Amino acid sequence: MLSDIDISRAATLQPIQAIADKAGIPADAVEPYGRFKAKLTREHLPVPRDLGKLILVTAISPTPAGEGKSTTSVGLADALNRIGKKTMIALREPSLGPCFGTKGGATGGGYAQVVPMEDINLHFTGDFHAITSAHNLLAAMIDNHVHWGNALDIDVRRVVWRRVLDMNDRALRDIAQSLGGPANGFPRESGFDITVASEVMAILCLADDLEDLEARLGRIVVAYSRDRKPITAKALKADGAMAVLLAEAIKPNLVQTLEGNPALVHGGPFANIAHGCNSVIATRTALGLADYVVTEAGFGADLGAEKFFDIKCRQADLKPSAAVIVATVRALKMNGGVAKADLSTEDVEAVKRGGVNLARHIENVRQFGLPAVVAINRFPTDTGAELTEVIAIAKAHGCDAIVCTHHADGGKGAEGLAKVVVELAEAPSQFAPLYDDDIPLFDKINTVATRIYRAEHATAEPSVLAQLKRWEDAGYGHLPVCMAKTQYSFSTDPAALGAPTGHSVPVREVRLAAGAGFVVAICGEIMTMPGLPRVPAAEGIRIGASGEIEGLF
Amino acid sequence: MLSDIDISRAATLQPIQAIADKAGIPADAVEPYGRFKAKLTREHLPVPRDLGKLILVTAISPTPAGEGKSTTSVGLADALNRIGKKTMIALREPSLGPCFGTKGGATGGGYAQVVPMEDINLHFTGDFHAITSAHNLLAAMIDNHVHWGNALDIDVRRVVWRRVLDMNDRALRDIAQSLGGPANGFPRESGFDITVASEVMAILCLADDLEDLEARLGRIVVAYSRDRKPITAKALKADGAMAVLLAEAIKPNLVQTLEGNPALVHGGPFANIAHGCNSVIATRTALGLADYVVTEAGFGADLGAEKFFDIKCRQADLKPSAAVIVATVRALKMNGGVAKADLSTEDVEAVKRGGVNLARHIENVRQFGLPAVVAINRFPTDTGAELTEVIAIAKAHGCDAIVCTHHADGGKGAEGLAKVVVELAEAPSQFAPLYDDDIPLFDKINTVATRIYRAEHATAEPSVLAQLKRWEDAGYGHLPVCMAKTQYSFSTDPAALGAPTGHSVPVREVRLAAGAGFVVAICGEIMTMPGLPRVPAAEGIRIGASGEIEGLF
């Protein structure tokens, strides 16, 4: 079998203007970045009359066995195009930093990829670099304000805005800054997160347009004053310059699938401390151009789909029509207690045991009023009996499960899935978010914990509850919550696979993302700056004799 | 008078492919970045037969009055095109960070600009972001190597590779990193420089091609072992991944002048701790396409031109044909002791007093075997008597001085200058660097100090001399030196204007840039991470109601 990068390279890409033509995008709206990438200027796009149907691809709880959510998204979009539905896909941009650690790209796999994969996985059109610049400009302006007299009375002990780099660099997690004497400012503790964890990233992905972007940037709370009042980016007069730095980044990026279908790849917020899906602007642009839009949320449905529904769809007033839950036999077996080394051995009982995970995700998606279908991303080692068992589990929960082979066969391998998706999506959407805006913040956390994670309850120290209360008093009580917990379990214990019950969800810390428009509830240890492994992938990455990149994936 | 940005916006830009056509660049070699920018792939360019003539634009010692070196470079290139010489200009890319501090753009001014100026001054084609990523990947790999066992026995007290950001941020000049416990590595002191100060920037600008780039990256010395052996980027296996990150950045960027002439804007190393001129690749590409190539060096001729000759031309085997020394009446008056507030009052005696600065720069340029002409960048307040005095000073030193009005009149205002440049350049080049490769490092420093700065001698503590000796023993003795001193004076005292004599040049510190291929001699305080001023320009930068950027310049 060819590697993903070999398949990607063997493909003959179409000029990006041809892809734009196919999508009905006028030449005026296309700003080329090289031959196979472009940014779209929305003011030049046709005003949409009927909006396309929005299909969310989500998954069971992730395991090291891999599920293939991006791959399935691409395969499904190609399949929908094959069966005559004009379809675009909207995906997240991959983060540069982890490419040099252990993680491969995030552009699908096999014959279900978006291309050019090297470009997309590296600098792409510079969006993440622009976010890094905007984020760090604000950071510099905070310390600069304090240095020159601190007219806003910023409490330097309560600066909550860190810096970011798109790099895996554990050495920057915790630093002491402004050392070296008075010319360098007032020493304080600080640190760096990876760029995808920046609130600026979340803002870019939730903004309606450039105007809304600037307004959201202005609302970012960067610090508190000595009398505990929130200090915003607008008070520092940083919002305008940040918006200028992001003026190109906010335009969605057009690329193509291996089958030559249009794909928008735009924005990539973390799926733990942020909402984990591509930009609202890309999704809306696609909905204005296509009959069907396939999009993807991060991690499993407990995290990614819940945030897609409760944060993105709520804020952007999007009405998804159906959900696809990606599962693999291998991942269900891991959820059923099989070790990674033993996954190639048939074990129907393990599939059955692990099936409780799939069942719960199906039930959860239904709570949002959405019809669902299970996509079984087939691996060569899957047996007929195992596949039959997955189909039975889904059926028992009122849901079709379709065996898909898009990794090996491209869109053709997902046509069965596409047909079911169309059936489901033809019915009017009954979508609604899980909770109302006007219940207290902690009740929102508790609603997700009990209804999605199936915990007994959420818990929090009095100091956390007091913080939530202060934010409610300051006018942030209407915001949705963004849960940051392990992606490996419904609980906060990454080892509790399957469908745990009887647990509680302890909220360790809460953070306000006033610009993005949510309150982050941190449950357990969440890493916002990854490190490199003992042997980083970077050591094997180089430009080969043929001029092609080696070792990237 | 219209502002630079108003003039820039009022211009009708030609599509970048039209500019490429004019320059004789085939469509295959053009990778568009939007409509008015492109990267050039050199393998698709025609193989040059005769190389064009290379014209260096340099200047007298800079003052707050401004000289207009970039403006004169653009005006001269437009003028050469007007008088029938096929001419390209090769300039540095501006740094993003300082745009938000006090500095305006670096794309010329008035009717002598390269455009689109907002793009060029902001993210442009992402080159500086790529350099930031490559630099910081190496930094992360150093700490990661130590964290996972330190097989190379890196002495963490002797890590000389800092991190970079393209931002003015004094808080990052000196930091303590890797705090927070064992998972974050071994705490040590460190800090950030601005991206233009990165050795990766200097390397990108001196590399012949991608292969040479990777080899140079591999030679970077990042630290010393406990037994004082240099540890290189190659030993850390970082060179390949860094080259991959820079594979797009190394391609020169094509833009246009306001008069529609082709301009390559590529690379922008600091002119103090680095050599301060655009990439060798851009200069060579232009020389292969045009009859004349106008390029520019940083600061005054004592720093910028000397490094252009002794570092860039030496390494790349370039033979410049003539030098243009930009002077203004105002700057000469400041060199003659007039305060900035009084510069609009006629003062011929002050011009005469300050003229010693111009005279010495003329003499210095001649030491490299190059014919020179003085370009007087005319300001509205200059009087006839003052201009006559400048012409007389130049004449007394065997050099024409031409009054230029390209700021107000575009290329037409520099036609007189262009004609003299052609006359000078028609003679065969007698160019030679100032010193030979094989003299000791300190003798090289002393040669520049005595022959260019006209000091009595250079001095250094025994520890500095011992360090130079160790590098000579380690095989770095053949490298040229890169002098880092104040740009405001021939001496190391920024207040000593004019043409000081009798001074000495104390070398405070030396740094090895083994990848770039020079040894930096730091004389006096050199700031490698600027700060923001009390009221940063960022506060006034925003996207206006018309959708155009306000406050950037």
From TrEMBL, chains A, B:
Pathway named in the protein's UniProt entry: One-carbon metabolism; tetrahydrofolate interconversion
PROSITE patterns recorded: FTHFS_2
Binding site for ATP: T63, P64, A65, G66, E67, G68, K69, S70
Enzyme Commission numbers on file: 6.3.4.3
Record key words, sorted: ATP-binding, Ligase, Nucleotide-binding, One-carbon metabolism
Family: Belongs to the formate--tetrahydrofolate ligase family.
Protein name from the UniProt record: Formate--tetrahydrofolate ligase
